[in-house]
Write a structure and sequence with these properties.
By secondary structure, the chain is of the alpha/beta class. Helix content is 57%, strand content 10%. Strands 1-2-3-4-6-5 form a 6-stranded mixed beta sheet, with helices on both faces. It starts with 7 loop residues before the first helix and ends with a helix.
Amino acid sequence: MFSRCKSGEERKKEWKKQRLQNIQLKTAFLRIYFRIKKYLIQLYRALHPEDTETTEDELKDITIKNILVDSCYNDLGFTVGDKIMILTEAQTTWTMNIIIRALMYLVQSYHEYFEHRNDNLYGSKKVKLPKPELYVIFTGKRISKPEYISLSEEFFSGEECAIDVKVKMIYDGKDNDIISQYVAFTKVYDEQVKLYGRTRKAVTNTINICKNRDVLKEYLSSREQEVVDMMMTLFDEEQVMRAYVESEKKEAAEKAAAEAAKKAAVISAIEMCQEIGLPVSETIKKIAGKYKLEENDAEAWVQKYWK
């Protein structure tokens, strides 16, 4: 037998699914990589090269954890003492909605910050508020590359509004800094997935190519097995999720088919009772008994299909 060709809509859905899976893996790598303070300080210095005094000890991870699937969580967040709160996102697909998500992440991060400090927002004493900085590391393809995108410009045509959000877009780093290496890693990974799919070979090739190109070499050399395990675990989780979804679809289809068959049988039985001249009351009892229905339900069926 020839397999059925996928429709344009099916191919589009498959493409979107692959894009989402790639984004999830890249963001997971971003979180795990910058969880290590010596790499996090490199990220901070790439964003603030003028600050040569801040130390690793002054950095605190405040990334919002993804506890529930539909909960608000971000890729990476950290504070620099009580001065700055930095939220960073990795983005492959261009969308202005990232501005709204950044605002949501910021509000949630401030909420957790004040809660951790036991600050009284209803008191008369002014609380300390770290200055927010919002960044998006964009690793997709785009001709136009604005340096900043803002809520007022994109959603309110530049009009003044009660609150504005300004996000700095980063497309590459400088002089082989930590940002440019992360971007290079994601591009190598994309190339290998195109060649070998979401397989161990794609993962190991990505690691080897990056090490040879001096891209995140120290991290990938010292934690190669950890990176492979992490990436393969994500692949496995996605496979389990796909299997679960397919199972749910199959179960729903089987249930719908069983219900349709039962409906056809009940209607046929009602018509047969009517043809042989059985009274409505007797038909209701027979239908209820044969198909194990409550008498009220059987009566509703008979009333609906009695001609």
